[in-house]
Amino acid sequence: MSIQLEKETVPFKRTVTNWHSARLVFSAFIKAHPELGLRDTPATFRNFSFRHGQLLRELDVMRKPCGLRSTAIFDANRFDEVVFDLLSLRSNSKQRPSELTQPELPFPEFDQEKRES
Known about the structure:
Strand order of the largest sheet: 3-5-4
Helix content: 40-55%
Order of helices and strands: EEEHHEEHH
Shape: elongated
Oligomer: single chain
Number of strands: 5
Largest sheet: 3 strands, antiparallel
């Protein structure tokens, strides 16, 4: 990609690479976590966005670029951890979490296996 100014080409390097289409990131998440039992359908995505969108925006995992018809984007680097915790730890959607991400795994033996690998 380049920007043209008065017959002069200026190279443009993309430096922000972690934000992607919300629909694509959500689909990849569902494929990566079959244990959650979610189906990859437009209705599932719409319901997820409606139910958890405000919290994801507050946590800066989701952004809605300016413009009425612009699609939402997700931070692909943080989405997996935050949303997995959101869907698997919270039983009440109105409950305000103090912290969604866990600093340590609840089972030390899993942490030990991870270190050995």
